[in-house]
Design brief:
- The structure holds two protein chains of two kinds.
- Chain A is mostly helical.
- Chain A has one domain: MetI-like (MetI-like fold, Orthogonal Bundle).
- Helices cover 81% and strands 0% of the residues of chain A.
- The longest helix of chain A has 38 residues.
- Chain A is globular.
- In chain A, 39% of the residues are buried.
- By secondary structure, chain B is α/β, with parallel strands linked by helices.
- Chain B has a single domain, classed as Rossmann fold (3-Layer(aba) Sandwich), CATH 3.40.50.300.
- Helices cover 31% and strands 28% of the residues of chain B.
- The chains are: A mainly alpha, B alpha/beta.
- Chains A and B meet through helix 5, helix 6 and helix 10 of A and strand 5 and helix 2 of B.
């Protein structure tokens, strides 16, 4: 118990003093996750909106597949990306394995289905409400997607935050494709795993505190966005 | 937006519509010319809303033809607008809701503020321009829906029971607006099941019953001397009803309740 409290105290000290190692890891984690989530939003939102709006053969199967992909096991994604980026893989020539770019790719693959599936649901609900009005006003397909994405902006912001939560808390895939290299690809989750195995609980706990704070902040922002939306738009 | 040749008259030729394996609109044939306010009346389930959706091409007939004679091959849709029973408000401000309709019709950006202002002033909503449309009362939302439709200066405006959920004061305001829009030159085609409203607004009446057009007449003639027996009973305030058999869905029983 005293080990735990002393480790916790040391962790708080690291956070308060903005320890440079800890800051570097946190910065890299945020950078990787933010880029991955931005890319996932750019791909996932139009994809989800298109799935909600257009009727085509195989659409139902795509929706089922997309929903299933929300639960993709990170280690499997990590393994697949590893095989593609490894020297003997199809994209091996780019030398991306064990770089932050590889970690971004892995997180992008994990987060895109989440954002796309949540977007599809949001846009589908809105479309049911707006369809006749849009058709009456003569809105074309592109105009419909743009307007629906804009009108669903508050719910979609929550979807993006959910994606960010998943990306920042993920460990399996980034461990495999990043390699957890000090000062290069070490992010919060992989550092926690490593420090625990080394017995350095202070740094692990410090990172854990930041990760939990981040999670609380994401949920807080999500709550505020939804409350504001309800207040302003009924 | 610019006034061009009229798309009217509108003609239905043997138009039927099927949904869920049932014929909901049956062999409608008639012609609507420019000018009067046409009110479509009938009991719930008569097919009034389907009728408007067919006119506005939100649904397509299962058989028959709908012809806008004046269109001469051009698309008649931009000359029409529709206001629904439940107003659909976009999640943006009152002014932006009206502006959205203008942006879809590619009205130049610099012309939009004046048109929005005019439409909102006409509906008395100018003081609410910056408010979110979805926090307005139901009556205000319906007036905004009228403003959004009218800003496009449609030649034909379809109104699907626009006052169905409004109190008498809001109903009066919406009726005044409908009259203003009519006087500005827009052809009004509207459904209602409110006979009083039909009396107040109609120049011409179409009486629908179970998807069939039973009578089309000038309002004065229809309300004083209806030719159809069911229309006479409907005007007298009798309740027209029908229901499908529990075992045999094709078996329909119907009647009149005084």
């Amino acid at each position: 118990m005293s080990d735990f409290s002393s480790a916790l105290w040391a962790a708080f000290s690291l956070v308060i003093q903005l320890d440079s190692d800890l800051a570097e890891i946190v910065f890299l984690s945020l950078k990787v996750s933010l880029i991955a989530v931005s890319g996932a939003a750019l791909i996932g939102m139009p994809l989800g909106a298109a799935l909600a709006l257009f009727r085509f053969r195989g659409r139902a199967s795509m929706v089922v597949l997309l929903n299933a992909l929300m639960g993709l096991p990170p280690v499997v994604v990590g393994l697949a990306v590893y095989l593609v980026l490894s020297r003997s893989g199809p994209l091996g020539v780019f030398g991306l394995l064990f770089t932050p770019t590889a970690m971004i790719i892995a997180q992008l693959i994990l987060v895109t289905p989440i954002i796309a599936a949540l977007t599809r649901q949001v846009i589908d609900d809105l479309w049911r409400e707006y369809e006749e009005q849009f058709r009456s006003l003569g809105a074309g397909p592109g105009q419909r997607i743009t307007a629906l994405l804009w009108d669903g902006r508050f719910s979609l912001a929550t979807a993006v935050l959910a994606g960010f939560g998943r990306a920042s808390a993920e460990v399996g895939a980034v461990m495999i494709v990043g390699g957890n290299i000090d000062h290069v690809t070490r992010v919060m989750t992989t550092a926690i795993a490593l420090e625990v195995s080394k017995g350095d609980l202070a740094l692990a706990l410090g990172l854990g505190i930041i990760l939990i704070t981040l999670s609380l902040a994401i949920n807080g922002v999500s709550y505020v966005i939804n409350e504001k939306a309800r207040e302003n738009h009924g | 937006m610019g006034k061009s040749e009229s798309i009217l008259p509108l003609e239905f030729r043997q138009v039927s519509f099927e949904g869920g394996g049932k014929r909901l609109i049956k062999d409608l044939s008639f012609r609507l010319d420019a000018g009067p306010r046409t009110i479509i009346i009938g009991a719930n389930g008569a097919g009034k809303s389907l009728f408007l959706r067919l006119c506005h091409k939100l649904i397509v007939p299962s058989s028959g033809e709908i012809i806008w004679h004046g269109a001469n091959g051009r698309n008649p849709a931009p000359a029409q607008a529709m206001v629904f029973q439940r107003p659909v408000m976009l999640r943006r401000s009152v002014a932006a809701n009206v502006g959205y309709a203008l942006s879809l019709r590619k009205v130049p950006r610099e012309k939009r503020p004046a048109l929005i202002e005019e439409a909102l002033r006409m509906t008395g909503l100018n003081r609410l321009a910056g408010y979110s449309a979805r926090v307005l009362s139901f009556g205000e939302q319906q007036k905004l829906a009228l403003a959004r439709a009218w800003v496009l200066r449609p030649e034909v405006l379809f109104l699907d029971e626009p006052t169905a959920s409004l109190d008498p004061a809001a109903t009066h305001e919406v009726e005044e607006l409908i009259n203003t829009i009519h006087q500005a030159g827009t052809r009004i085609i509207m459904t209602t099941h409110d006979l009083g409203q039909a009396h107040r607004l109609a120049d011409e009446v179409l009486f629908l019953h179970r998807g069939r057009l039973l009578e089309k007449a000038a309002a004065a003639a229809f309300f004083t001397k209806p030719e159809n027996d069911l229309a006479r009973k409907f005007i007298a305030g009798d309740l027209l009803w029908w229901k499908r058999g529990k075992d045999n869905r094709n078996q329909i029983s119907e009647g009149v309740m005084k």
